[in-house]
TrEMBL record:
Residues 384-443 form the Glycosyl hydrolase family 30 beta sandwich domain. The lineage of its organism: Bacteria, Bacillati, Bacillota, Bacilli, Bacillales. The keyword Transit peptide does not apply. This is Glucosylceramidase. InterPro entries: GH, GH30_C, Glyco_hydro_30, Glyco_hydro_30_TIM-barrel, Glyco_hydro_b. Gene3D superfamilies: Glycosidases, Golgi alpha-mannosidase II. It comes from Paenibacillus xylanexedens.
Length: 450
């Protein structure tokens, strides 16, 4: 006997509700039926998971603004596989990003001074909020994987002399490689193994008002091949190296890095602020065996909530997974009522967190991104393998995975303007038939022969 667990959200409100089979709307006999065919014999990538980032701002809000009861609640709802939505990936900034209360690295020095031996290296800043919350997340979900990305090298290593603007000076490539080694070793000392790093967040963008660092493709290939990977080997570090960490619209960048340093690179990290997710497949097909990861995409005020913004996350998330990504990571885990805190001088923020922590009222709110992530992470578990899913109507988007326990996870999004009839099949055996409202989502966990 096949059993099902189902979750539904409509395009009208923030919901993630569990349904019984009896609660599904029967087919409308006056309409054609869309068939979703699943084939678990045709497989693709293995999933690491879904998540967001403990930026300095996010960690501060959750760890210091919320009370203990609220903090326990939100951490459980974010990371616990049964009591929550089971997020299993965290991407932490290495030092300050745009969402930090101050500009800092792990090796700041007075102006005109350098520290070639990194004697002043310290992750003490992270020990306040970021590390305790990351440890708690790992305790709640032992399958958690940690990713890390710097927004900038310490200012003294750069042409600008600052964490804002500039490039990494070639003379400091060895020291910067050691900077990564020390970071990874320091986190391991706190019981937090780093699964993967990228050498630079958004390497083609040089912001003038928050930490950033321009790193052309040839420079990144040189740094990885001749400095970072050798430093990892010398220190017996198994952390994976992902290149690029930027938008879909410049696939030539990762292609260049993989061509010049492919043996030292484990995969490519992508963002959604330009281009299309099909770029992931273009690079994947050019360099078979290199992992694909989606490491940052923020929701925000530029897309009106609820329906349009929710639909965008679902539509794009499905597309990301159908283009070989092993992860789907949004941006800030938490932001406040003003979409901050941000670094001084940043200006008005328009980004949205997975949760909102109101600093004035000390209130906790789960945003539409939380519910969108839930539709993926609650049914697609770590080590799940994507299987073939085809739809007879392009208006019904789908992605499916087979979990390690044999269950099949299916996420459906009705991108059409009308209610649709949907029929699902696995190996030509009919499973479920139901109606889907326009802009609604159905997440289905199928346990065959149980």
């Amino acid at each position: 006997m096949t059993t099902f667990k189902m979750y539904k959200s409509t395009g009208e409100e923030e919901l993630f509700v569990s349904l019984s089979q009896e609660q599904l709307k029967p087919l409308d006999t006056d309409k054609e039926t869309t068939t979703i065919h699943l084939d678990d014999q045709l497989t693709y990538q293995e999933m690491d998971g879904f998540g967001a980032s403990f930026t300095d701002s996010s960690a501060y809000l959750i760890n210091q603004i919320l009370n203990e009861e609220q903090r326990d609640e939100v951490m459980t709802r974010l990371f616990h596989p049964e009591k929550g939505i089971g997020l299993s990936v965290i991407r932490n900034p290495m030092g300050a990003s745009d969402y930090a209360r101050m500009v800092y690295s792990y090796n700041d020095m007075p102006e005109q001074q350098t520290d070639p031996e990194l004697t002043q290296f310290s992750i003490a800043h992270d020990e306040g909020d970021v590390i305790p919350l990351t440890q708690k997340a790992l305790e709640l979900n032992p399958e958690l994987k940690l990713f890390a990305s710097p927004w900038s090298a310490p200012g003294w290593m750069k042409t600008s002399g600052s964490m804002i603007t500039g490039q990494l000076k070639a003379e400091w490539y060895p020291a910067y490689a050691e900077y990564f080694v020390k970071y990874i070793q320091a986190y391991v000392a706190h019981g937090l193994p780093i699964h993967a790093i990228t050498p630079q967040n958004e390497a083609l963008y040089e912001p003038g008002h928050y930490p950033g660092m321009l790193m052309p493709a040839e420079a990144q290939a040189d740094f990885i091949k001749n400095h970072l990977k050798p430093a990892f080997v010398q220190n017996d570090i198994q952390t994976k190296i992902l290149c690029y960490d930027h938008n879909w619209d410049q696939p030539d960048y990762p292609l260049t890095v993989l061509k010049q340093a492919g043996d030292e690179v484990d995969g490519v990290a992508w963002h959604w602020y330009g281009g299309d997710a099909s770029a992931q497949t273009k690079v994947y097909e050019a360099f078979a065996g290199k992992e694909v990861h989606f490491t940052e995409g923020s929701g925000g005020e530029w897309i009106p909530p609820f329906e349009q913004a929710f639909s965008n996350v679902m539509r794009t998330g499905i597309h990301i997974l159908r283009n070989y990504s092993k992860s789907f990571v949004l941006w800030n885990m938490a932001l406040d009522e003003n979409n901050g805190p941000t670094v001084p001088g940043f200006g008005r923020s328009t980004c949205r967190g997975i949760v909102q922590v109101n600093q004035q009222k000390k209130e906790l709110t789960y945003t539409l991104d939380y519910y969108a992530l839930a539709h993926f992470s609650a049914v697609i578990r770590p080590k799940a393998v994507r299987i073939e899913s085809t739809s007879s109507d392009d208006g019904i988007c789908s992605v499916a995975f087979k979990n390690a326990d044999g269950s099949v996870a299916l996420v459906l999004f009705n991108d059409g303007e009308e209610t649709a009839n949907v029929q699902t099949e696995l190996r030509n055996e009919e499973l479920l038939c139901f109606q889907m409202e326009s802009k609604s989502v159905m997440s289905i966990l199928i346990h065959p022969n149980k």
